[in-house]
Amino acid sequence: MIEKIVKNLENARLFFEDMKILLFTDDDCINILYKKAADINIKEHDAIKLETKIFYPLVYSVQSNCPTCGYQTPESRREYNPAYMESVIKYNIDVIKSYDIKRINCLHIENNKNYERELFLKILNKYDIDKAIKIDDIKELDIIEKYDFASLIMDSKNLELFKYLKDNKSIQKSYHITANVEIYNNNLEENIEFINNLREYDVDAVEIVGYDPFYDDVHEYNPQYNKEYVKRVISTLRIMYPELELKISYATNGCNYFDEIIPLGINSINGIYCNRTNKLFNMEKIMDILQKIPQNQEK
Questions:
Q1: In this predicted model, what pLDDT tens digit does every residue of 97-138 receive, in sequence order?
Q2: What pLDDT, on a 0 to 100 scale, did the predictor assign at position 227?
Q3: Please, is 5 exposed, middle or buried when counting C-beta atoms within 10 Å of its C-beta (0-12, 13-18, 19+)?
Q4: What pTM value is reported for the model?
Q5: 150 in a domain, yes or no?
Q6: DSSP assignment of the chain, as one string?
Q7: Alpha-carbon distance 80 to 264, whole Å?
Q8: Which residue in 69, 127, 173, 191 could disulfide with 81, CB within 3.0 to 4.6 Å?
Q9: How far apart are CA 207 and CA 184, in angstroms?
Q10: How far is the C-alpha of 247 from the C-alpha of 198, rounded, in Å?
Q11: Which domain holds residue 113?
Q12: How many independent structural domains does the chain possess?
């Protein structure tokens, strides 16, 4: 049964019943899936790349009525002082660039203030490093096109955005596009539909994002996705799309299993938090793991 399913995957066909078997079977034959994915990954891809995230406006956020930046004081008209923002961003960029980090991924959190957003992009545009920015609406391209961003990030659930992408090939040619796919158990059916349509969307990369609560969050001790579950999702994607770049988002709760999942198809790790830019000093942890992976040593 597993051999037949793997053959379907090689022909870029993913069926719902097949995926249920792959994800939930206890049969040792699942190792056939893992072996196929690992062989393809070694043949098609080089050493692992590292990326980091900047969440804006969190990267420059301050307390209300801060005397340093003037935010939320009568003098500032409730706007950030650009010099303050630039100094904070420069500090973070300098630390990031001191490591072998290939790209900065810019993700917004509750940022509805166009003034702050455009100021952030303008400041970041000064730095010679590959940058990707997450968009939720095609209208946001009007802002982004002013700046030096060669990569876009989109949520796989945003089907309207991907439909626009499919109908406008010029955007695909202009940008490196990453689709974020959340792999919770309860959205299996919609993920299968999206994975089957990946060729039509012609994305360059897929980032696998799981349930990842931050430390000190009320959900901190809730389990992330099961290790076998994520191994099977990665293997499925690698077999169906041998040349596609697959990324995994670093889990701040420590449930990463990198030594087991990277050989199955991961090409990039996103969420490298460097010293002094985040309390999670995970650069050293990740480098220790990568040094033990043969694929990363040989290429």
A1: 888 888 988 887 555 566 777 888 888 888 888 999 988 888
A2: 82
A3: buried
A4: 0.83
A5: yes
A6: -HHHHHHHHHTT---HHHHHHHHH---TTHHHHHHHHHHHHHHH--SPEEEEEEEETGGG---TT-TTT-TTSGGGTT---HHHHHHHHHHHHHHHHTS---EEEEEESS---HHHHHHHHHHHTTS-SEEEEE-SSGGGHHHHTTS---EEEEETT-HHHHHHHHH-HHHHHHSEEEEEEE--GGGHHHHHHHHHTHHHHT-SEEEEE---PPTTSTTTTS--S-HHHHHHHHHHHHHH-TTSEEEEEPPTTS---HHHHGGGT--EEE-PPPTTT-S---HHHHHHHHHT-HHHHH-
A7: 45
A8: 69
A9: 14
A10: 15
A11: 1-291
A12: 1
Calculate the CA dihedral of residues 32, 33, 34, 37 and round it to 10 degrees: 120
At 63 the pLDDT is 60
Least confident range from 106-110, 252-256, 274-278: namely 274-278
Q: Which residue has the higher pLDDT, 220 or 125?
A: 125
Domain-embedded: residue 299: no
249 Cβ contact partners less than 8 Å away, ≥ 6 residues apart = 207, 208, 209, 210, 212, 270, 271
Distance CA 251, CA 212 (A): 6
Report whether 51 contacts 268 (CB < 8 A). Answer: yes
What backbone phi and psi angles, to 5 degrees, belong to 168? -125, 85
pLDDT band at 264 (very low <50, low <70, confident <90, very high): very high
Asked if the structure places residue 200 within a domain, the reply is yes
Residue 172 sits in a domain whose CATH number is 3.20.20.70
One-letter identity of residue 176: H
What average pLDDT is seen over the chain? 80
- pLDDT in the model for residue 110: 57
Length of the chain: 299
The residue among 171, 282, 124, 266 whose CA lies nearest residue 209 is: 266
Is 88 contained in some domain?
A: yes
Phi and psi torsions of 136, nearest 5°: -115, -15
